[in-house]
Amino acid sequence: MSTPMLEIKNLHVRVEDQEILKGVNLTLNRGEVHAVMGRNGSGKSTLSYVLAGKDDYEITDGEILFNGEDLLEMEPDERAAAGVFLAFQYPIEIPGVATMTFLKAAMNAQRKSRGEGELSTPEFMKAVKEAASLLEVKQDMLKRPLNVGFSGGEKKRAEILQMALLAPQLCILDETDSGLDIDALKVVSEGVNKLRGPDRTMLVITHYQRLLNHIVPDVVHVFSDGRVVETGGKELALELEAKGYADFDAETAA
């Protein structure tokens, strides 16, 4: 049996004086799409930040293995080079930095860390053109400064384009449906679905079931009070939509 792509074992995390994650256990196999659902404050986004290597989170117990390697020993840039990608809930605008310049720098930084040569301009342009065509990203978006003046849907689509170009093994989507109307949600979800594959694993974090109508998960986990309290198939998301989180909060308190 192959090694799981991601194994999280008894993960405890503090921020300042507050324990946020209280013994998280998750196993994600290659090619699977897992959804983590839970109300605000349950610890979902903290999990995504810890996986990406964000500062200010103190791991007090547990381990995270990525393809059998200790993820917690890697710096954020090393995690990115190894194939970990985090799509943020609110992508930031970077005035003065052209989108194309950013994409080329990101791709070449990743290649350098893997001991590969930099892309030539024609190679880079070909890769961007192919990915933009696949994801239906308009060329005028690529000519603007990164995320500046983008709508919520455009910002999310630009991140999906980054994901396509960097070709990560593990994609973490942190509430990627935040601030999107239903049309933008469909467009972004279609982009994500086009990047699904047998060698790519996705962790989709949300508290709305509507996203999972479009990005249908293999496994759904319910977070409450910093831990996983229930795991099931896609029907679990529908149950949450119908009943809410109260029953699961009661399980946590029991």
Short structural description:
This protein is α/β, with parallel strands linked by helices and 254 residues long. Helix content is 39%, strand content 28%. It has a single domain (6-253), classed as P-loop containing nucleotide triphosphate hydrolases (Rossmann fold, 3-Layer(aba) Sandwich), CATH 3.40.50.300.
Could you describe the 3D structure shown?
With 254 residues, the chain is α/β, with parallel strands linked by helices. It has one domain (6-253): P-loop containing nucleotide triphosphate hydrolases (Rossmann fold, 3-Layer(aba) Sandwich). It has helices at residues 44-52, 76-82, 99-113, 121-135, 139-142, 152-166, 182-194, 211-214, 235-243, 246-253, and strands spanning 6-15, 18-28, 33-37, 58-66, 69-70, 84-87, 94-98, 145-146, 170-174, 201-206, 219-224, 227-232. It has a six-stranded mixed beta sheet with strand order 6-9-10-3-11-12, sandwiched between helices. Helix 2 (76-82) packs across helix 3 (99-113), helix 4 crosses helix 6 (152-166) and helix 6 packs parallel to helix 7. The radius of gyration is 18 Å and the shape is globular. The two termini are 36 Å apart. The mean pLDDT is 89.
